[in-house]
User: What shape does this take?
Amino acid sequence: MATRKIVVTGPFNAGKTEFIKSVSEIEVVSTERRITTEDAHIKAETTVAMDFGRLTLGGNVLHLFGTPGQPRFEFMWEILAKEMDGFVVLVDSTDPDRFEQAQRLIRLFTEIGPAPFVVAATKQDLEGALRPSQVRQALQLPPEIPVLPNVAIDPDSVRSVLVQLDHLITWGM
Ligand SMILES: Nc1nc2c(ncn2[C@@H]2O[C@H](COP(=O)(O)OP(=O)(O)OP(=O)(O)O)[C@@H](O)[C@H]2O)c(=O)[nH]1
Ligand SMILES: [Mg+2]
Assistant: This one.
């Protein structure tokens, strides 16, 4: 049984904390604090350091590390990415204004890694969500990078993303 370190990253409000809470077998260790900046109208709390959860998948134990999304906590990204086996970039499919931030994160994490990764086009349950193919196009991602449909509040959907990432880590495909 292998233990794998998986980092879940993505722009502010993408759904990283929900993604990990949806599937974790342990109570998620989270570091959410009240938002006092201009983002306060979007939601009440934001991750300031990390989320930690765990999921057993087939023969592997995935340790899930969620990053903060607000750029002022970006010092945590490199710390969390250390020796990761793979990562998920969550992109809110209804929020194209933050796609540039997602591109920046992909660049940064591939530089720190490098490790296999998938992009999850999340919030597919919401009206106006761009399809994964549209998210791929907007982010100008090459065809070899998987862009998967996702609903972060749906455990089956999250599990499916992690199964595909786990495969990619094991088999490189
Ligand atoms: N409808 C819907 N809502 C979602 C989904 N994923 C997340 N949300 C909501 O989006 C908001 C942000 O979710 P979080 O998990 O806090 O996002 P985050 O990426 O951890 O945010 P930061 O830590 O602040 O960067 C919350 O209100 C969630 O309930 C989804 O797939 N569908
Ligand atoms: Mg969070």
Q: What stands out?
A: The longest strand covers residues 45-57. The chain has a mean pLDDT of 95. The beta strands are 3-9, 29-34, 45-57, 60-66, 86-92, 117-122, 147-149.
